[in-house]
Amino acid sequence: MSRDTRTRILVASLLLFNENGEPNTTTNDIADEVDISPGNLHYHFRKKSDLVDALLLEFQADAKRVLQPPESSQASLDDFWVFLHHLLELTASYRFLLRDMESLVVDYAKLGNALKHFARGLVASFELYLHALAAGGQIGLDSRDMRIVSRNLAVIALFSEKFDSLVDSSSTVDDSALRIAAAVLNVLRPYVTEEHSGHLAELATYYAA
Amino acid sequence: MSRDTRTRILVASLLLFNENGEPNTTTNDIADEVDISPGNLHYHFRKKSDLVDALLLEFQADAKRVLQPPESSQASLDDFWVFLHHLLELTASYRFLLRDMESLVVDYAKLGNALKHFARGLVASFELYLHALAAGGQIGLDSRDMRIVSRNLAVIALFSEKFDSLVDSSSTVDDSALRIAAAVLNVLRPYVTEEHSGHLAELATYYAA
Q1: Cα A163 from Cα A156, distance rounded (Å)
Q2: Contact status, residue A62 vs residue A114, Cβ threshold 8 Å
Q3: Do A74 and A7 sit in the same domain of this protein?
Q4: B112 and B16, same structural domain?
Q5: Number of folded domains in chain A?
Q6: Which of A99, A114, B32, B201 has the greatest number of C-beta atoms within 10 Å?
């Protein structure tokens, strides 16, 4: 029973943080959302920062699962697409971390380190996928260019939603995920071999809203 | 004399904001840097927010000059390179605005709007350059893809430095500018026509630190 309440509190916190931002969410808002008393919330999490810490641990565990190297040394565009899909699910699920990173980093020391590792892991994963896609004959890309392309992919994946919210405050999360996916596939497009370009175009249509 | 002091105050503020962040800079720090009394500073700028507002006006004026459409309907890679150079000078000069945008937007209402217009103008400028580069026979890129490539270029130009400071806190501004320029040129590379690919590689060597 108590374990269940704890989970419900975390789910509600993530929801409210993502929707309204962590600074604009109080523990009372969270208790309201879960429909429990502030005292009951306090029993599970003494401070708001304990909630952020718990969510950060979940983010790190989820990120570790998403940022797995490709299963084999040769990857197909479909493998990459599945990876991209999981990545976008992850960044959308924890978007309060990415959107407000500057302000959060000031209050939560652990966050800066977690985001640093995530950003580095993201570049590394993209680079492993590029190597595997090249080995699988899906793209033609010099391995000395793979690092810089991976970095561009990581910057786009990490900051696209922020860019969207900057240029268009009415942009929704779903719009943004579609745009990020389209943007990432677009970066790959010029490198895709003739033989697979039709398939990439097909994957991209999933995201052409 | 007084006009001169005003300018010196603004230059010192920009320097300190860029180095230490706006939240970590007090008006006393600025008076110290200019070597004037706090009272003298107060005579020119009553509050720190007046300084930020004045710098924001300068940023907007500078941005307007940088984000000019290409001079002719046909642009060369050199034209693009000059544009990129001015853009990187601009984003490095006002990096406190871009690096701390979330926290600044809360305190300075005008800033959100200014950054929104800048980000939109940046996408539009990149798009105009891509059209002009294509018209000049420098790149081969479908015009329906130009919008998405421009958006990717804008995200990279705006957030690369932030990404660098996230993954490597010891990264310097100069390192970052080099990396951003290399990243932007790398996005263009696959589209550059055979005839001009040598020239792009040559431009890129300026940035291979």
Answers
A1: 9
A2: no
A3: no
A4: no
A5: 2
A6: A99
| Residue B42, domain CATH | 1.10.10.60
CA gap A186, A188 in Å, rounded: 5
Indicate whether A111 and A35 sit together in one domain.
no
Q: What is the DSSP letter of B139?
A: B
**Residue in B149, B163, B183 closest to A186 by CB:** B149
Element (H, E) at A185: helix A173-188
A74 and A37 both lie in a single domain: no
Buried/exposed code over A133-155 (b: 16+ C-beta within 10 A; e: otherwise): bbebebbebeeeebebbbbbbbb
Are residue A30 and residue A125 in the same domain, yes or no? no
| One-letter-per-residue 3-state SS of A88-151 | HHHHHHCHHHHHCHHHHHHHCHHHHHHHHHHHHHHHHHHHHHHHHHHHCCCECCCHHHHHHHHH
Map B172-196 to HEC letters: CHHHHHHHHHHHHHHHHHHHECHHH
Q: Residue A205, Cα to own-chain centre: how many angstroms?
A: 21
**Which chain A residues are Cβ-neighbours of B179 within 8 angstroms?**
151
Tell me the per-residue pLDDT of A92-133, one tens digit each, with 9 for 90 and over.
Answer: 999 899 877 777 877 787 888 899 999 999 999 999 999 999
Those residues whose C-beta lies under 8 Å from the C-beta of residue A96, and which sit 6 or more positions away, are: A14, A17, A18, A21, A22, A104
C-alpha B10/C-alpha A177 separation (Å) is 40
The count of other CB atoms within 10 Å of the CB of residue B3 is 8
For residue A93, the enclosing domain spans 53-205
pLDDT tens track for B72-126: 999 999 999 999 999 999 999 998 988 777 778 777 878 888 999 999 999 999 9
Q: Touching check for B113 and chain A: CB below 8 Å?
A: no
